Amino acid sequence: MEIDTMQRLIEGFKRFRDGEYPERIPLFQELATKQEPGTLFVTCSDSRVVPEFITQSEPGDMFVIRNAGNIIPSFGPHHGGVSATVEYAVAVLGVADIVVCGHSDCGAMTAIADGADLSTLPAVSSWLHHADAAKAINDAHVHSCKSGKVAGMVRENVIAQLANLRTHPSVALALSEGRVRLHGWVYDIGEGSIEAYDASSGRFVDLIDYPETDATALNLVS
Amino acid sequence: MEIDTMQRLIEGFKRFRDGEYPERIPLFQELATKQEPGTLFVTCSDSRVVPEFITQSEPGDMFVIRNAGNIIPSFGPHHGGVSATVEYAVAVLGVADIVVCGHSDCGAMTAIADGADLSTLPAVSSWLHHADAAKAINDAHVHSCKSGKVAGMVRENVIAQLANLRTHPSVALALSEGRVRLHGWVYDIGEGSIEAYDASSGRFVDLIDYPETDATALNLVS
Amino acid sequence: MEIDTMQRLIEGFKRFRDGEYPERIPLFQELATKQEPGTLFVTCSDSRVVPEFITQSEPGDMFVIRNAGNIIPSFGPHHGGVSATVEYAVAVLGVADIVVCGHSDCGAMTAIADGADLSTLPAVSSWLHHADAAKAINDAHVHSCKSGKVAGMVRENVIAQLANLRTHPSVALALSEGRVRLHGWVYDIGEGSIEAYDASSGRFVDLIDYPETDATALNLVS
Amino acid sequence: MEIDTMQRLIEGFKRFRDGEYPERIPLFQELATKQEPGTLFVTCSDSRVVPEFITQSEPGDMFVIRNAGNIIPSFGPHHGGVSATVEYAVAVLGVADIVVCGHSDCGAMTAIADGADLSTLPAVSSWLHHADAAKAINDAHVHSCKSGKVAGMVRENVIAQLANLRTHPSVALALSEGRVRLHGWVYDIGEGSIEAYDASSGRFVDLIDYPETDATALNLVS
Amino acid sequence: MEIDTMQRLIEGFKRFRDGEYPERIPLFQELATKQEPGTLFVTCSDSRVVPEFITQSEPGDMFVIRNAGNIIPSFGPHHGGVSATVEYAVAVLGVADIVVCGHSDCGAMTAIADGADLSTLPAVSSWLHHADAAKAINDAHVHSCKSGKVAGMVRENVIAQLANLRTHPSVALALSEGRVRLHGWVYDIGEGSIEAYDASSGRFVDLIDYPETDATALNLVS
Amino acid sequence: MEIDTMQRLIEGFKRFRDGEYPERIPLFQELATKQEPGTLFVTCSDSRVVPEFITQSEPGDMFVIRNAGNIIPSFGPHHGGVSATVEYAVAVLGVADIVVCGHSDCGAMTAIADGADLSTLPAVSSWLHHADAAKAINDAHVHSCKSGKVAGMVRENVIAQLANLRTHPSVALALSEGRVRLHGWVYDIGEGSIEAYDASSGRFVDLIDYPETDATALNLVS
Ligand SMILES: [Zn+2]
Ligand SMILES: [Zn+2]
Ligand SMILES: [Zn+2]
Ligand SMILES: [Zn+2]
Ligand SMILES: [Zn+2]
Ligand SMILES: [Zn+2]
């Protein structure tokens, strides 16, 4: 059965190699020696969230960070992989937009919202503390049901990670110079929809209805 | 121009929503409340490396970690995002395969191979120390040209990250019980090809020619 | 000569004990077992900046953090003294206002603005990285003179520390519930004046002229 | 009500600006461009402990560190704000005396002595571990009452922070050259009194009765 | 009685000085200005495990690391004493062999195997997390008795520390160049015997019967 | 040649097994299930410094920590192996004496005294910062020759590590209760002699002449 997983992956790669690749040889040859992505897309490692698929992006379009919970630790003296990758995307590649994209049914956010016992998962437990600000706010709200609490956690987490993002020197500089815009999205897997955080109203709105919505001007008191 | 980046992304999402999504409603409804990925795929944030595209995977197939340099810090008391995400993938989701996938023309590996001055990129500089073992080995080799040195660095980095991966308790346990297999890949952007690390010979071979190749049984002295 | 320093301190304490203390016995007896400060005041350790003196506050009025550069590290897994003290002030004492107060001629900010060699001061050098976002922005501005660059650094640092402050869970929660307001001040030692950061315009204004000015609603793009 | 807190602060600043400042214009103009404090004063953030007031010091006299519990982490590879500020005070400003001043009814020391549940205050909980040595010693003593245990904790903490202080290179060097003296004080808020740690006897004595008392020559076995 | 401990030590030193030393003056004079040890020996601090005694080594033969549990943290950005000492032994002294030697009745391994409450030993508790991979594997095995579980833990710990060792750049480089060999030993105090880890079979065998056994070629799936 | 190193070790073990072990069977059988060492001995990993040999100790007598430079990091929130091992020795085993033993021609202390370029040895470089206090003091002294500077560094390092040791809660508690005594030694490899730090005079004296010398009562100003 395990064989199947890898067989399927390798069969997929053969289809890519025999189908998609030949159709894009000029693109791939151009990309062979340079990338100029316009966007940094930060999302969860969740297998159901495929950023290039849901945005129908081509190779070369988006620089992507993926980890459990689409978390961006705030800037500090102990630089981890997210800090390094944000720094590279903004200071070296000069991306114009940063999207922080959470999603429905997120395992990480569910664990936080449920107050799950994470004692056997010490690394997960430690990592999710980067969402403590979101948790504090979400826990203080009244939720009518458990799934509402998870949904709230997903949204508060996106907002909290945007606040963390602003502490990174490369981002703070680019924001001060108007070179980058921030976006906070929540992708619904079952519905195929995206809500975007509207910083001016402090609310999430449908991305298709409000394509200009962004989170650049953080307004925490609506 | 910046507007175009996001406009394109949002246009892409509309195509997804109006095209891809309706075709897969049963899949997405099933995925709405659970994921059962068979593979953990760790690759670079590079915009040219789209793991689901090159393996033609569907949503739900692969749990994905992406950061600059496809780095997996070894396990230690200070858990970062990669450690947490590996722990979640192996201990909670029970993935059967872990692929560490480097790629040609990697900016992170080029910076290391070239000994680039990273003083203005402190987070990148710090993060790339997790590839110090690979750098030490690659620097000790004779390289006929600069691109050969980068290519060597990409390969040594994949091997070094596999060694780091083995220090994670969830991985060590799964390996000891034969529940997980490790794979070390290098994807060539321009060629559309993949080489896989063959642990028994200590060499990289063409994945299509040798689809059974894996890196589970680490043999550092061939 | 050193004796004089302590002699003066102890003489001062005698004057307090024989003069100020007897005048305030009811206050001190009330304070003996409880404090209810309304404000958390974060300022530099600089000997010329005496927060209670410049605000003519009484004992019991202000909870005070003082360190080199009035720095507030962003929230992360390695909690230091500032994080702990902010947490105590907001979550336990329930302060209603937080003032981050920089000052003219700040040694810490001058060292950053001048790019001083701090190799013999490793702890100072490390600590000042918490002002990297401010430094990046200030360095990108054109300054007509050296003192203008220091003054700019002092101001950008106040703004950056306010961004760091927002990543602390206790602060983020209190902000979301409207329980706390933020203030960014710069005190001029020679002039005896205070400028306050006006978040709506992104400018510093005279505190006496605009006593309602605050930094709660962060607006980074004016 | 919250308005009142800030109004009072700003009213206080106006009184300073219209009263205290004009009386000291020559002092403030001299201070505008330099400071030469003789003392580094480390005390708690507690609103009831105003170091310049209880020593009747003038602006420019004392370099001040304030945090919850007047804690000085020992020197190590992860430099925090206290280490940086001590380094600046001793190595750059060349202070001749360092006073570590605890106080009665300290919230931080009470939490330790009482074994308070700090699970909702993770940063406080972590920070107070820097007083573990003091806690171990105080817990081993027999205390007749709860307030006696807190008082003991306050005193042991001052002694422990003096031991931590000695591990800082700048302090160790200055001590070895006789350039700095250490002082351990406990300020009683209700009584308006100060006790000083006498290193030769290992006891706290009344500062006014024994103004020469100091903690420079640490004698841990009396 | 405490006096006796030191008296015995000093009496021992006198015997060394009057007996062993004069017999080896040429050796000690040669060693006075240089060392060329062939082996790095990593073992527990346990008083019953004397590496030079059980191997009948002379001064100058073995570079020795000793800590509770013969632990070698994996390589990471926060370098501790073991990392530094390994680096010095391999990169500067050029040792040809590294022995990681556990032992019977190890207090550290017993604490892990028993799931002892280490809440009053925070540093021990934290340190032993470097054996989490070994613990995970050993806990998953069925043990017929408590001492069997401890014995299993001792063995798994040796294997896990060898995996950690491979992440160190100096070791990875030396392994890749065939300049160093790894050895995993378990010393039985009561029996006076040593078992060695045979990487090819994944088993521990008697060292005297199989003196060529080594752990260089790590084969985790036998 | 590498074979010889291990062959010699294994030959040595055979001599132990056939000679020393049978002579001590009763001791080893008693030791098989418990240890009661009276002393914690902290010394350098240097192959020429064999603590049990120079003190002619038997198995079971001394709990031993060995690392490059006989360094004891001060107590802090990030517990390493030395902190854990000290904690175990003092709090669990209840050792009565702690010896910190430096030695002549120490490679670590020579690197510090010479200001050696350690850029290719990052872990060593980082570790040796725990001797910064000693370095600061030694650098401030006038040394007639290079070897005098190294000898001074060795001595100042022993004193500095004793100061670090006092910050550990287990040690501070044991000192306060008179349950442990501290000793600072310097072993001369070529001479076979030991000097001990006399805390009352602040000087090192010959251990054989002054066997009662100890470092318990730290007196930094003689
Ligand atoms: Zn998720
Ligand atoms: Zn890359
Ligand atoms: Zn300042
Ligand atoms: Zn207090
Ligand atoms: Zn042991
Ligand atoms: Zn040494």
Strand and helix map with partners:
The structure is a homohexamer of 222-residue chains.
Chain A: H1 2-23, H2 25-31, E1 39-44, H3 51-54, E2 62-67, H4 81-92, E3 97-103, H5 107-114, H6 122-127, H7 132-140, H8 146-165, H9 169-176, E4 181-188, E5 193-198, E6 203-206
Parallel strand pairs in A: 1-2, 1-3, 3-4
Antiparallel strand pairs in A: 4-5, 5-6
Helix pairs in contact in A: 4-9, 5-8, 7-8
Bound molecules: zinc ion (6 copies).
Please give a structural write-up.
6 copies of one chain form a homohexamer. In chain A, strand 4 (181-188) and strand 5 form a beta hairpin. Chain A folds into 2 domains: 1-34, no CATH class; 36-206, Beta-carbonic Anhydrase, Chain A, CATH 3.40.1050.10. A 6-stranded mixed β-sheet of chain A has the order 2-1-3-4-5-6, covered by helices on one side. With 222 residues, chain A is of the alpha/beta class. Chain A has helices spanning 2-23, 25-31, 51-54, 81-92, 107-114, 122-127, 132-140, 146-165, 169-176, and strands spanning 39-44, 62-67, 97-103, 181-188, 193-198, 203-206. Chain A has 9 helices and 6 strands, in the order ααβαβαβαααααβββ. In chain A, helix 4 (81-92) runs parallel beside helix 9, helix 5 crosses helix 8 (146-165) and helix 7 crosses helix 8. The longest helix of chain A has 22 residues, at 2-23. Chains in contact: A-B, A-C, B-E, C-D, D-F, E-F. The interface between E and F is large, with 92 and 92 residues. Bound molecules: zinc ion (6 copies). Residues 44, 46, 69, 103, 106-108 of chain B line the site of one zinc ion.
